[in-house]
């Protein structure tokens, strides 16, 4: 008997608990449903708060959110810091009842666009871009809401389409706006697949009642190509004229003319000395072993030759001979390093003096040696990148070999890489890219 009473009490308790659970499930959502709903809720859309609340309330209905506090807490969980700062007065003093409804009204009124602002956004900021016309129409319809008529939306939407598509759609006024949007999708897709990328000159299929624009488009393209060919021909002629003029300026005097000029100069100098020189110097010149006073003959000083260093190659050729009288040397001043660079077109490498390097670190000699003409070794200390400003409206970046030399040298590697021409007659370098000279 006692066991029977215990069984009846247990069964009664189970039925009561089940009925309580059923009542709870009818009024409140399960805990898992609450978490899932909050996780799937998007962040607050400041630009479209009304649309955001429409989406959120649909989720509330799906997950059976009926409690006002639960809705209020769910909305707060999807607000960012900036939004909560703007709502601090509402959040600090919420009403005792209808907290969610009050929060919804405040958020829509503060962040939602007014009826006057929505047409401005529709008429001035929306563009077609890479969207389909039908998608653009849907976006404009959402932004327009109920305050803008369908005719206004249709007029603005047509104005955003390519001009050729607009002309085609003018022949179908009897179709609805949605049907016109589908037709615009097909026309624009065909235009984008065509080879012509111009907005106004396109080729597409039209109905037989309208004139085909393909002939006009082809004629316009042919006309534009003809104009481009004429421009290219004029530019080619102009460049050839500039090259010819530049070559004429760079032409040197004939070799025989230079030799005759030097010979006349030597004869003039010797005749001036012979008038006051003794017999032996007048006859034998610098080879005279005797001299009779008075004699004003000046023994000529032999020209000093300085051999510029070059890397040792397969041959024993000597590059970069410069004369101490300065008649044939070309130096170019660099505004960046404030150095005078000696232009040596026969030197294999461009060199930078060790003394010109401003560095606290001690420079260590490298294994790669540079040899002078007499076979002596010139020490090198690696390479360093410099930017030169030679006055031709562009900079020259080059990696110089740091060596024990007295002057900075622009070698053949630098001249060949930038295509610079050496004009010894006028003492300058000519840049073919800018047609300017140093």
UniProtKB/TrEMBL annotation:
Domain of life: Eukaryota
Compositional bias segments (type: Basic residues): 255-269
Segments forming domain DUF7041: 41-122
Region (Disordered): 1-24, 252-276
Protein name as it appears in the record: DUF7041 domain-containing protein
Lineage, highest ranks first: Eukaryota, Metazoa, Ecdysozoa, Arthropoda, Hexapoda
């Amino acid at each position: 008997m006692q066991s029977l009473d215990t069984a009846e009490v247990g069964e009664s308790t189970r039925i009561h608990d089940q009925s309580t659970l059923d009542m709870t499930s009818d009024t409140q959502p399960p805990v898992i449903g609450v978490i899932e709903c909050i996780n799937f809720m998007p962040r607050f859309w400041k630009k479209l708060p009304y649309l955001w609340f429409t989406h959120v309330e649909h989720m509330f209905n799906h997950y059976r959110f009926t409690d006002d506090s639960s809705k209020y807490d769910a909305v707060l969980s999807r607000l960012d810091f900036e939004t909560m700062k703007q709502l601090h007065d509402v959040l600090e003093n919420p009403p005792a009842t209808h907290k969610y409804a009050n929060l919804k009204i405040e958020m829509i009124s503060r962040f939602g666009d007014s009826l006057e602002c929505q047409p401005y956004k529709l008429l001035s900021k929306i563009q077609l871009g890479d969207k389909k016309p039908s998608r653009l129409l849907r976006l404009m319809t959402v932004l327009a809401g109920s305050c803008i008529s369908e005719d206004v939306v249709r007029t603005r939407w047509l104005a955003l389409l390519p001009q050729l598509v607009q002309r085609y759609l003018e022949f179908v006024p009897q179709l609805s706006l949605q049907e016109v949007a589908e037709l615009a999708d097909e026309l624009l897709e065909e235009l984008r697949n065509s080879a012509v990328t111009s907005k106004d000159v396109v080729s597409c299929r039209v109905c037989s009642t309208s004139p085909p624009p393909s002939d006009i488009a082809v004629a316009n393209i042919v006309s534009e190509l003809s104009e481009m060919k004429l421009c290219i021909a004029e530019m080619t002629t102009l460049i050839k004229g500039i090259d010819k003029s530049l070559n004429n300026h760079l032409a040197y005097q004939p070799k025989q003319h230079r030799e005759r000029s030097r010979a006349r100069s030597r004869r003039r100098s010797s005749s001036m000395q012979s008038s006051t020189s003794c017999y032996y110097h007048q006859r034998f010149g610098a080879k005279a072993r005797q001299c009779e006073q008075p004699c004003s003959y000046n023994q000529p000083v032999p020209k000093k030759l300085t051999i510029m260093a070059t890397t040792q190659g397969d041959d024993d050729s000597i590059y970069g001979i410069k004369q101490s009288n300065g008649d044939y040397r070309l130096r170019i001043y660099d505004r960046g390093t404030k150095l005078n660079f000696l232009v040596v077109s026969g030197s294999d490498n461009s060199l930078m003096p060790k003394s010109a390097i401003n560095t606290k670190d001690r420079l260590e000699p490298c294994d790669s040696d540079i040899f002078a003409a007499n076979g002596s070794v010139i020490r090198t200390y690696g390479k360093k990148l410099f930017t030169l400003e030679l006055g031709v409206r562009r900079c020259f970046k080059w990696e110089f070999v740091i060596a024990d030399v007295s002057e900075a040298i622009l070698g053949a590697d630098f001249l060949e890489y930038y295509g610079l021409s050496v004009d010894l007659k006028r003492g300058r370098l000519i840049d073919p890219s800018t047609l300017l000279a140093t």
